Amino acid sequence: MAALFTGKVLMANRERDEVETERELVRALENKVLLLYFGSGQCPQCRQFSPLLKDFFLRLTDEFYVERASQLVLVYVSRDETEEQQSAFLRTMPKRWLAVPFGDAFRRELELRFAVSEVPAVVVLKPNGEVIVGNAVEEIRRMGPACFRNWQEAAELVDRNFLLAEDFDDWTRRSITDPIRRLKYKLDKKTEAKDKGRKEDGKESS
Fold first, then answer.
1. Which residue(s) pair with 10 in the sheet?
2. Secondary structure (H, E, C), the chain
3. pTM to 2 decimal places
4. What pLDDT score was predicted for residue 28?
5. What residue spans define the domains of the chain?
6. Which residue stretches of the chain have pLDDT < 50?
7. How far is 161 from 66, CA to CA, in rounded Å?
8. How much is the pLDDT for 167?
């Protein structure tokens, strides 16, 4: 996915930090489903859809809703008329969003590459840059966060955890209780040996 942005610059939302080196881009984008959101804070349809997209993104990535953030990243591709309009819009959106800098010619490249003619548009991409959904706006409206599972399967993402949560919990319980069980086993063996010794001593004295 980083190959799509090679030599380009992305901005971290609400900050002046640039995500531009290949290493930074790989870390931000690898093994994730990428959403390219083409929109504008002034477009009436975008004003209706953007809060839905914000909620969609937060429910998949914010620790208030999920224990572990989904493998999802969003890049805002602005059609705002001024940089101030773009900044004002992004201030109302999640901090984890990235954005193509205002006025960057790369915006037009992306529009042409993914045949975006109207906004709002959400292009869903695999980590290798292949298109999963050309425009997921209606799918997000209809299904909400549930549609991410379909994208995840299509993208064949590698799970970041080697142990599933339930397996990990079971393993944790075993690892914690095993030493206690072993200790109890040793104590039981010692008690049995003592009792056996006492019985033998009793037989000999009688």
1. 19
2. CHHHHCCCCEEECCCCCEECCHHHHHHHHCCCEEEEEEECCCCHHHHHHHHHHHHHHHHHHCCCCCCCCCCEEEEEEECCCCHHHHHHHHCCCCCCCEECCCCCCHHHHHHHHCCCCCCCEEEEECCCCCEEECCCHHHHHHHHHHHHHHHHHHHCCCCCCCCCHHHHHHHHHHHHHHHHHHHHHHHHHHHHHHHHHHHHHHHHHC
3. 0.74
4. 80
5. 2-167, 175-205
6. 162-186
7. 15
8. 44
The burial of 91, by beta-carbon neighbours within 10 Å (0-12 exposed, 13-18 middle, 19 or more buried), is given as exposed
What pLDDT does residue 25 have? 74
Token code pair at residue 206:
């009688």
Which of 3.40.50.300, 2.60.120.10, 3.40.30.10, 3.40.640.10 would CATH assign to domain 2-167? Answer: 3.40.30.10
The amino acid present at 138, given as its one-letter code, is E
> Which amino acid is it at 29?
L
